[in-house]
Amino acid sequence: MDKIKKSDEVIVLAGKDKGKRGIVARRVDAEHVVIDGINVAKKATKPNPMTGVTGGIVDKSMPIHVSNVALFNAATGKADRVGFKDVDGKKVRVYKSSGEVVKV
């Protein structure tokens, strides 16, 4: 089970976007996530008339390492670490500071 999943709200802890919040768009691999509007790079694209793609410079969200993001705890309004706990025979994610279950 992953500590950070798709559609989680996270805060960036390190890098050029430190302090910004965003929603996890997808998991690239076990250690990288893509967050909407965070770690954006300019990318030049060629036009492709077969698919209707116009050429030019576009913004693209690049992956960021999971160690550089933390789950956002809405109750405290801050970043929080995540742990695991067994509740009714199910493994669930919990906030380390309060011990409450992370809502999916």
Walk me through the structure.
The chain is mainly β. It contains no helices and 10 strands. The strands form 3 sheets. A 6-stranded antiparallel β-sheet has the order 6-3-2-1-7-8, with no helix packed on it. The model has no long low-confidence stretch (mean pLDDT 93).
What's the helix and strand layout?
Blueprint: E1 9-12, E2 21-27, E3 32-35, E4 40-45, E5 56-61, E6 64-65, E7 69-73, E8 78-80, E9 82-87, E10 90-95
Antiparallel strand pairs: 1-2, 1-7, 2-3, 3-6, 4-5, 7-8, 9-10
Short descriptors:
104 residues; mainly beta; SH3 type barrels; two-stranded antiparallel sheet; 10 strands; elongated
Helix content: under 10%
| Structural shape | elongated
CATH architecture: Roll
Radius of gyration: 17 Å
Brief digest:
The chain has 104 residues and is an all-beta fold.
